[in-house]
Amino acid sequence: MTIPKGTTVKVTARAANGWYKVGYAGRTGWISNKYVSIVRSAAPAPGRLPATVRTTAGLNLRTGPSTAYAVLVTIPRGTTLKVSARASNGWYKVGYAGRTGWVSNTYVTTSTGSGSSPSAPRAPQSTGPNRTSRVVLTFDDCPRTLGSFTATIKYAADHNMGLVIAPTGNCLSSFRARYGVDLAALARAKGQWVINHSVSHPDLRRLSCAAAAAQLGGSGVRTNFGRPPFGAIDASVRCAYDRVGMAIWTWSRDTLDWSVKSKSITVARASAARPGDTVLMHMQWQGFAPDSLRQIKANLAKRGVGVCRAYHGSDGVGVVARTPVRLPASLPC
After folding, report:
1. Which of 151, 251, 315, 326 is deepest in the core (most CB within 10 A)?
2. Measuring CA to CA, which residue among 27, 19, 25 is closest to residue 7?
């Protein structure tokens, strides 16, 4: 038979000439390696059965390993289940509420007995790990120049401001290739926080859970918090973030700087933030500049609202320190 373009199939073997043995529509056969791309999965390697799986959505427990079988019960999202077997199509045999059945591998995140797949931290989606009344200024995508990036990061550190930077993987790769620098490392060295923003900024809702999870790895930032491109989220996107052990952090105030393209309007909208807000801006627009940061901080201060402070180490004192790769459950703002 012919498998449609864009179909993800599970590989069970590889021949000496490179062809893959796969399963599709209830059949098993071989396909040419010339017309496929490899999708790397967060699941354990073949032969290694995960000790447990955790559901990333309300998930049906079925009598057999496919949607053709009857539903026994619906398992709530976030439930950890002990795995006893895995079918050739990837479905897991589990026990729940005194019943034994099968669940789809698409809507679970796996963990081995060694705990190699960390669980995503728990935090409010729109304000993330900021538990304080201070405002967090966040910047997505990619700076226009290395000079603008270093100047803005240095200003933030010098004036005790802790920004959240969300660069794409393509942005990081581009600056490494052109200048031999790691933007994420530069930001962390100045006491700034860095989160994931995918590799190439696609709408993750249009991808499978596995493909979206691949977008959260690759050349992107490897950490425990991430921001979906466009803030676009559905069950499959949540599945991807859970699969890689990353919490979603969006925003509570959007300046729409990419649309207005105005420094004064962007500064005014950011300055209107309420205590605890996460403000969205972008590194390629007017909010990401020393003078914009100066105005925003001063305007908020006039209203008695502070901005998140640069990182000063776990004790919160002394000089500005390098931020950890993985964000704490509560930012020391």
Report:
1. 251
2. 25
Nearest by Cα to 23 from 13, 15, 32, 33: 13
Of 94, 96, 103, 105, the C-alpha closest to 44 is 105
Count how many domains the chain has: 3
Whole-angstrom Cα distance, residue 32 to residue 122? 43
SS3 content of the chain, % helix, strand, coil (to 5): 25, 25, 50
Q: How high is the mean pLDDT in each 10-residue block of the chain (333 residues)?
A: 78 76 81 73 52 82 91 87 87 92 82 51 93 97 98 98 98 96 98 98 95 90 96 94 94 97 97 98 97 98 98 86 94 95
Residues 199 and 232 in one domain: yes
Residue 332 lies in a domain: no
Residues 172 and 287 in one domain: yes
Q: Are residues 150 and 269 in the same domain?
A: yes
- Residues with Cβ within 8 Å of residue 133, at least 6 apart in sequence: 275, 276, 305, 306
CA–CA distances in Å: residue 265 to residues 135, 151, 271, 287, 301: 18, 22, 10, 9, 18
**Owning domain of residue 15:** 1-38
DSSP assignment of 87-141 equals -TTS-EEEEETTEEEEE-GGGEEEE-TT--SPPPPP--TTTTT--SSSBEEEEEE
The reply to whether 75 and 162 lie within a common domain is no
Q: Which two tokens stand for residue 174?
A: 């581009």
Counting Cβ atoms within 10 Å, is residue 67 exposed (0-12), middle (13-18) or buried (19+)? exposed
